[in-house]
Amino acid sequence: MPSQTMTLRSVKRAAALAAVSLLFLAHVPLAHPFDQTYESTVEALETYRTLIADYPEDLELRYLLGDMQIRAGKLDDAGATFEQLLTLDPGYDMAHYRLAEVFYRREKYAEALTPLEKMKDKSLQDDKLIAMATVFLKLENPRKALELSRKAIETDELNPGGWLHMGLAFRDMGETEKAIEYMEKSFLMDPAQPLVFEWYDELLEKHRTPAQRLEILQRLLKKIPRDYTAAVRMKDRIKSLKGKMEKEPGKRTPSKNGKNP
After folding, report:
1. CB atoms within 10 A of CB 114
2. Which of these, 19, 98, 25, lies nearest to 63 by C-alpha position?
3. Stretch 197-214: mean pLDDT
4. Which of 67, 98, 148, 209 is the most exposed place for a label (fewest CB within 10 A)?
5. Cα-Cα-Cα-Cα dihedral sign, residues 23, 94, 65, 159
């Protein structure tokens, strides 16, 4: 049975963590983790450091500190935190993953591969493969990125990250039609990612006529929730395309009966 002192320590720890969580929920949109105010960041980081001093054996607290340091843009500090955590537990796979993220954000792409290669947890293998594919794209090795992305899809055909990275690899290899096909597939699987739409539409703009691009965007818009950021951007592009085509002879948008007015 736990002692009264241990119970009290656990309650204090839980209360402190809850306070940090509420602090960030109040200030940070979940999709934009870098938007927190300077004051809330400093307060949260100090809270985690205090908790770690009180509970040095708690590795989760060290992980959460490193996560917060990444969010705050303190990449050197985050790297040191995850490296220290891994000296205490070399098998902490998520710490390897986040250390790789630190290297990636610092544009040390080759170094990011080392912690990823050390990950052993089978439940994280898809994440590992996609992360490595991302790194190889930065290292200008799209064929290796393609190989890793295919492995991720072999274990989960509904993995939007796998299809996306296959599309990006084909894009970098100059195989535009496959790139468009796979990036559209990824986007429809997860339309909540506006950056994927931007990459996809960039290809459409370069490799489709305005009329073809308009038709594709109108088709896609029917398949995704209208309140998503990508849907809002898509509607703006459609409006802009229609306006430009109306002004250009021979490129006017078709009427409902399929003929130009």
Report:
1. 12
2. 98
3. 97
4. 209
5. negative
Cβ 249 vs Cβ 243: under 8 Å: no
Evaluate whether 245 touches 251 at the Cβ level (below 8 Å).
Answer: yes
Per-residue pLDDT of 117-127, as tens digits, reads: 999 999 999 99
Residue pair 210/244 in contact (Cβ under 8 Å)? The answer is yes
Interval 34-51: pLDDT, tens? 344 455 777 888 888 888
**pLDDT tens, 63-82?**
999 999 998 999 999 999 99
- What is the mean predicted confidence (pLDDT) over 7-21? 44
Among residues 251, 252, 188, the alpha carbon closest in space to that of 219 is found at: 188
The letter for the amino acid at 79 is G
Phi, psi torsion values for 248, nearest 5 degrees: -105, 125
What's phi and psi for 33, nearest 5 deg?
Answer: -70, -5
Question: Cβ–Cβ contacts within 10 Å for residue 108, how many?
Answer: 13
Query: Cα–Cα distance between 84 and 72 in angstroms, integer?
Result: 19
Q: Rounded distance, CA 212 to CA 230, Å? A: 19
pTM as predicted: 0.78
Cα–Cα nearest to 199, from 188, 184, 213: 184
Q: Where are the beta strands (DSSP E) in 129-188?
A: none
Yes or no: say if 50 and 63 are a contact pair by the CB < 8 Å rule: no
Cβ-based burial of 184 (10 A; exposed 0-12, middle 13-18, buried ≥19): buried
What are residue 227's phi and psi, to 5 degrees? -90, 0
3 state DSSP class of 34: coil
Give the side-chain half-sphere CA count within 13 A for 179. Answer: 20
